[in-house]
Design goal:
mainly alpha
């Protein structure tokens, strides 16, 4: 196993080195500074916004759903994470549509009504999550009643 880990680690180091070499040889100073700024802002947003919000949400689900089964709480947290990730992907597209004007500058990228699609996605996600929680709770309560009768 040590040989496999060393091989995978070496392969990863080569990939990182190749990526760094490619960045330095193909991008100018301005692009590298822009990339560094983007990465710094992404790190700040992740550590300063995403992590605290997801931690607080997880704690809120645990407190508010203390009468629910652990699987139901996990389903709710999973639905919230899925909604958050999809929202983070779609919101920049919605913003770009607002800036791009009519017709958009790049019609191949900014097609469709992303805001409506996100709303429909949220609605379907809520319905599926609620249905899954109802099924889990009913099934587990029915099984616990049958277990106590026998």
């Amino acid at each position: 196993m040590t040989t496999v880990r060393l091989g995978v680690g070496a392969l990863g180091a080569v990939a990182v080195g190749f990526g760094a070499y490619s960045l330095l040889t193909h991008l100018g100073l301005a692009a590298l500074l822009g990339l560094a700024a983007w990465m710094a802002v992404a790190l700040l947003l992740h550590d300063g916004v995403v992590v605290p919000v997801s931690t607080a949400t997880g704690h809120g689900v645990r407190c508010a759903g203390r009468h629910l089964r652990p699987l139901s709480r996990a389903l709710i947290r999973g639905a919230l994470v899925l909604a958050a990730v999809c929202t983070l992907i779609v919101v920049p597209l919605v913003a770009a549509q607002q800036v791009a004007g009519n017709p958009p500058v790049n019609a191949t990228v900014l097609q469709g009504n992303y805001a409506l699609a996100l709303g429909v996605f949220w609605g379907v996600l809520v319905l599926v999550a609620v249905a899954a929680v109802v099924v889990v709770e009913r099934y587990s309560r029915r099984n616990s009643r049958q277990t106590t009768r026998s």
